[in-house]
């Protein structure tokens, strides 16, 4: 059965963004989503590295993303990695006030256009305690997002909780090796000196996160069986695909 043609618009930060070929193997989960979706669903990834709800809206990117929506489309909203940065007034959005308000603006904008908003809490960083148990890194932001979802009727995926459970099962070393952007010197021509990044993902890590998210969206009924493919299939990082330029580069004022 062929599903109804729809767009899935992603708004968020660096963990969701699509990266260019000269940034590989870094990838965001939004970049990996198409690998799990059937062709009638088009992913339009407007997530931007470094963005908070405040900077995304203030730059005009939020309005531009909302204008992409048509009735029956989906809007995935995932912010929180940068909203807490009180040292940066251009991005700081306190969890109990501005952050909630900004999320409501995005939810309301989607609902007015007949689209379905889905709030996605921030995927957890690679944070482990001395006993090797996965920890939390986003303070009050995931709970605030879930409360906005409940208050507005938006769907919600607690990706912070889901990912933390996954990192806990994998442990600190496998999580670094299989998910996060840990590269040895000389391993990648785009990162010749190597990198140890506990926030961002390799292509294979983006696949891991996208699989968790699509599975959750399927369980919620946001995506149907005819929307989804390949959840049980082993997938190579190369299936993510890196464009020549970031597709969100021209969106909004930046």
Automatic annotation (TrEMBL):
Alphabetical list of Pfam families matching this protein: Lipase_GDSL_2 (PF13472)
Coiled-coil regions listed: none
CDD domains xrefs: Rhamnogalacturan_acetylesterase_like
Domain SGNH hydrolase-type esterase: 10-180
Record key words, sorted: Hydrolase
Record InterPro entries: RhgT-like, SGNH_hydro, SGNH_hydro_sf
Transport is among the record's keywords: no
Highest taxon of source: Bacteria
Annotated family: Belongs to the 'GDSL' lipolytic enzyme family.
Protein name: Lysophospholipase L1
Organism annotation: Actinoalloteichus caeruleus DSM 43889
């Amino acid at each position: 059965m062929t599903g109804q043609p729809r767009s899935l618009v992603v708004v968020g930060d660096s963990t969701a963004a699509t990266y260019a070929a000269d940034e590989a193997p870094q990838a965001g989960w939004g970049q990996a989503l198409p690998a799990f979706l059937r062709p009638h669903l088009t992913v339009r990834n407007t997530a931007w590295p470094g963005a908070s709800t405040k900077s995304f809206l203030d730059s005009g990117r939020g309005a531009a993303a909302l204008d992409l929506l048509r009735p029956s489309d989906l809007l995935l909203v995932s912010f929180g990695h940068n909203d807490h940065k009180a040292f940066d007034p251009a991005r700081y959005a306190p969890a109990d006030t501005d952050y909630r308000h900004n999320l409501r603006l995005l939810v309301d904008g989607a609902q007015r256009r007949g689209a379905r908003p889905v709030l996605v809490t921030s995927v957890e960083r690679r944070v482990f305690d001395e006993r090797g148990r996965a920890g939390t890194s986003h303070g009050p932001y995931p709970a605030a997002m879930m409360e906005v979802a409940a208050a507005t009727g938006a769907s919600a995926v607690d990706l912070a909780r889901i990912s933390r459970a996954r990192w806990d099962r994998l442990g600190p070393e496998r999580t670094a090796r299989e998910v996060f952007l840990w590269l040895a010197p000389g391993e990648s021509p785009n990162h010749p000196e190597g990198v140890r990044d506990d926030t961002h993902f390799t292509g294979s890590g983006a696949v891991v996160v996208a699989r968790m998210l699509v599975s959750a969206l399927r369980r919620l009924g946001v995506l149907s069986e005819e929307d989804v493919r390949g959840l049980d299939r082993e997938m190579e990082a190369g299936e993510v695909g890196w464009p020549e330029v970031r597709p969100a580069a021209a969106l909004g004022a930046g």
